[in-house]
Design goal:
- By secondary structure, this protein is mainly alpha-helical.
- It is 35% helix and 6% strand.
- Helix 8 runs antiparallel to helix 10, helix 11 runs antiparallel to helix 16 and helix 16 runs antiparallel to helix 17.
């Protein structure tokens, strides 16, 4: 084969690539790269094939940030989902013999990321040979593929830490020693990613103009957002030199693979560099027309409360065509994921109500005063697991929300009138009601208007939305409303999801990253730090940080760097909940040991009586997250084949 030299093998890193593997990304009936790049049509197929290696955020069990995270989304461990790789990771079953979600070798549910990088290199080496491409197309396609290659390196780095840098494909005639590549230090990988992004960004479009055909393609804002995330990881505790377990993490050459320079000034300099990059990404997003999503008031007759709930769901579930908060959209089909989060509102139950939010997540959201429930002296934290009845059937326009201890008019749009539910579900912030639904909570759908009958979820055992059979029930008692479009119909016999694109990056993420980087790069938080957090809180119907914390047990918390750090972290865990971000944040902050060694809890879904259902139940308690779990292991056989590789610490 004339172009066989482009097909290569790297022992211990890449799977052996046969022609049959390669033909998955070249046109049918062709067998050579010469044909693949013989004209525009064929090369375009190869171009889009590079995009196919992006991790699939729409796959609940195969994306590392979703089920695999272990404390955000849960399922019945005895049902038919228990064998999925993500489920096994959530239960702490990772191993070195055959790792789950193995993105290094492309096994165990993980994509073949190194093959994706290989194909990016093949494309860049051959695209100039295509005779009928316009100059603009050639320049743009090359820039997009460079960003894809940078992102693939970034993604692998977030899982494995130090990785090889594959800027060029290794020739088939390379010596055995040349093939046995080394893992490079994280700081070198970061520098490579940043340089590649800086090289390619000027050749990218500022925004997508053909939304129907180009959604998901890379723009300048996307490229700069990837750069921002990369530098935030560089500055975060996992990689910034402060983690004691990496102080002597070296390869067989004696090269230090993760920085051991824990000088505070050096760490602050990393954060300053990250802050500049995040601000550049935000500016590019604004120029491209991205803004925080708000549901178009006046589109339907509804209360401000309901419109706000649609806003707080719509920033994720509204399509890219109308939702300009999404900077980068995952275009994979998320219908099944959406069905698994949907209550049993259909006569056909198959495929619904199998994924739930943990009780921990329900407790993470703020009180209605915009502060954590255990920090709010006006919120009854001690009795949160007791029950309370929503006795008011209509809102009193003259009453101050929540001021009367026996009045629940404030919950008219949140909890079914006359219904009884846990105190935990009362007087919470709007995102709690927009993102979650619970027993006797109201589920907003466009087919159920404010002036008509409301859909009140009833999910105790024997109720219409409760336990039907073992594989179809909300295992913790909390439906993930945030990942279900409010446009789904209710008049169909079987689930009919309204397809939307899961956000890989949205503007709220960048705002909070900027607040984090600013806070870490300053000696103390200031109005600039508060402003970026408050922009997210304002959209969520909350007062600003300083104003809200006046009523907290520690009103000075936002005034110091450590306290504001904790606030920003909590804000990210709430605002970006269930979007695949939490597990990555917990690892880069080095907080996973704090969160992932706690039991997974929920209500007792098998309880029929009120007093039985509202008993907190432990669903999983055996996971042990230790220092080794911050980086994923390489397969033991990979280390045998390539003796130049070293295993991650603790494995």
């Amino acid at each position: 084969m004339k172009y066989l030299k482009y097909i290569f093998l790297i022992s211990g890193i890449f799977l052996f690539t046969r022609c049959s593997d390669y033909l998955a990304v070249v046109p049918d009936g062709t067998a050579t790269l010469e044909t693949a790049f013989s004209n525009r049509i064929n090369s375009e197929k190869f171009f889009y094939g590079c995009y196919n290696y992006l991790p699939n955020m729409a796959s609940a069990f195969d994306y590392p940030g979703l089920i695999a995270g272990g404390d955000e989304i849960w399922w019945d461990v005895d049902n038919n989902m228990k064998g999925n790789s993500g489920a096994r990771l959530a239960q702490g079953q990772q191993n070195i013999t055959d790792p789950y979600l193995n993105y290094w070798d492309g096994a165990g549910g993980g994509k073949r990321m190194w093959i994706g990088i290989r194909d990016c290199n093949i494309f860049l080496e051959n695209i100039d040979n295509v005779p009928d491409l316009t100059a603009n197309e050639r320049v743009r396609w090359k820039a997009e593929v460079k960003i894809l290659k940078a992102y693939f390196h970034f993604f692998l780095m977030t899982l494995y830490g130090p990785i090889p840098i594959m800027d060029k494909n290794i020739d088939v005639s390379a010596s055995p020693e040349e093939v046995r590549v080394y893992r490079e230090p994280v700081d070198d990988v970061i520098e490579y990613i940043i340089n590649l992004i800086d090289e390619a960004t000027p050749d990218l479009p500022a925004s997508i103009t053909e939304i129907t055909t180009e959604t998901g393609r890379i723009t300048q804002a996307i490229a700069l957002a990837i750069k921002a995330r990369t530098l935030v990881w560089s500055a975060s505790p996992l990689f910034n030199g402060s983690y004691v377990y990496y102080q002597n993490f070296k390869d067989k050459r004696g090269v230090q693979l993760i920085s051991n320079n824990n000088d505070p000034a050096a760490i602050q300099a990393r954060w300053e560099k990250a802050a500049v990059a995040v601000k550049a990404a935000i500016d590019a997003a604004h120029i491209a027309g991205h803004n925080l999503f708000r549901y178009p008031i006046g589109f339907d007759i509804m209360s401000d409360t309901t419109a706000l709930k649609y806003t707080l769901r719509g920033c994720v579930t509204e399509r890219f065509t109308t939702n300009r908060e999404i900077v980068w959209a995952c275009t994979n089909d998320n219908n099944q994921f959406q069905n698994w989060c949907t209550p049993k509102i259909y006569t056909s139950y198959a495929g619904t109500a199998e994924l739930s939010a943990t009780l921990k997540m329900a407790e993470t959201y703020y009180s209605k005063n915009g502060i954590p429930i255990d920090e709010d002296p006006y919120w009854d934290y001690e009795h949160r697991y007791e029950t309370l009845t929503n006795t008011i059937t209509e809102p009193d326009p003259d009453a101050e929300p929540g001021t009367e201890p026996d009045s629940y008019a404030w919950h008219y749009y949140y909890i079914g009138a006359g219904e009884t539910t846990a105190r935990l579900n009362y007087y919470r912030e709007p995102r709690f009601y927009a993102h979650l639904c619970f027993d006797r909570g109201i589920y907003e759908l466009l087919t159920n208007k404010d002036d008509g009958p409301q859909l009140v979820v009833k999910n105790r055992s024997g109720d219409v939305h409760g336990l039907v059979f073992q594989d179809c029930h909300p295992s913790t008692g909390y439906f993930i409303k945030k990942l279900v479009s409010f446009r789904i119909p209710t008049n169909t016999q079987a689930p009919a999801p309204y397809r939307f694109s899961m956000p890989i990056i949205r503007l709220a993420d960048l705002y909070l990253l900027y607040a984090e980087a600013l806070n870490e790069s300053k000696n103390a938080p200031d109005n600039e730090v508060y402003a970026w957090v408050d922009s997210i809180r304002s959209r969520a119907g909350l007062d600003g940080v300083v104003e809200s914390w006046k009523y907290a047990k520690d009103p000075l918390k936002p005034m110091n760097k450590e306290g504001m750090r904790e606030i920003i972290k909590r804000e990210r865990l709430i605002e970006l909940s269930f979007e695949g971000q939490r597990p990555f944040d917990l690892r880069r902050w080095r907080d996973a040991e704090k969160y992932l060694n706690e039991p997974v809890r929920g209500w007792d879904f098998q309880g029929q009586k009120l007093e039985d259902y509202y008993l907190t139940r432990v669903y999983f308690s055996n996971r042990k997250f230790t220092y080794k779990d911050y980086l994923w292991p390489l397969r033991s056989n990979t280390l045998v084949v390539n003796s130049n590789l070293v295993q991650n610490p603790g494995w």
